[in-house]
Amino acid sequence: MVASSAQTGNWPEGQAAAIEARTTFLRRALDLKIVRVLLAAAGWTAVGVVFALPSLWTSGWHQELRIYLAQWWTWGALTPVIMAIDRQLPFSGKELGRRVVVHLALSAVFTEVYFYLFTAMRAVLGVTPWSSLQIKQLTSPSVLGWQIWSWLVYWIIAGAIQAYAYYGRYMSSELRLERLEHSFAEARLNSLRMQLDPHFLFNALNTISSHVERDPKLTRRMIEHLGDLLRLSLESKDKQEVPLSEELAFLDHYLALQRIRFGNQLKFHFQIAPEVRFASVPSLFLQPLVENAIRHGVSRRAAGGTVTVEALPLDRRLEIRVFDDGVGLPQGWTLESSAGLGLSITRERIAGLHPNGKSRFAVRNRAEGGTVVEISLPLSLAGEEVHGNGG
Q: Exposure of 365 by Cβ count < 10 A (0-12 exposed, 13-18 middle, 19+ buried)?
């Protein structure tokens, strides 16, 4: 017959594990409390020694030291009580006036309690006789100066408690504000990101619709590429940043549509440094730039043209250029007032992902003809900075 756990004196395995976990927790909590008590005792002792320093070179230094130690050890014992009472007051952090009124009443009580405990502590340390604990001794005019000093010390401690509490509330409010700002920035970026999808989709559908009757087979191929584009777009819809290689893969499908549409009139060149292929970049930021170069640059030339995408490291930054040899920017064109939806959203997203001047976005005419978009971002790979090779 198998003996039960009670008969053998052994706990069941699960119950033993639970008891061990509770014991470990209690032991850790107790150890932490002891450490705090020891640190507090050391701190109050240090305060007493500091106050006794001027008398350490006199003949009665040992008695002065015991008096000051008795004084600050007593305050060390009372301070947790003051803190506990302050935490229990039914006032919010904004009701400082009511809290001060309560502490005004508490200061009178604690001054008397402190002075009695202080006198007892001095008697324990052999500074004064035990007869000094008599009521007539505690209320004599000779101790009035000590009581006024004790009242002032109470307000110093109460003030420190309030300052610490206000600091805690300030840090909490700062943390909440930071979280709200982060949430707002995320919502804004998501809103901008969502505007890109329909904008891109409508432009792609317009491209396809222009070939439906003219070349049905070509239209089917374009629809297949559009399906791949939409799939990649959905896969990255929850990502603000992706590796540059993923962005280039998305761009390849878009360029396949454009090659079908323009044929040999449109050429594309890629100059991507190997060390930046997995750098973090904003998702769907290249397609609007290339589309803009095609629509407003090379497509307006009868002979077509070339769109080039460059990406290279430079001084711990990722430098990206998208340029064409098209007709260039019209006179008076500015990024602030003349940019289309694709350029505007891309610029805002980059500024939102890398604020405070950490990014640069510029559009200008090229000396050789055409337009160039220049983007500079912090170079990072999987959360770590990647050192450029200087170009």
A: middle
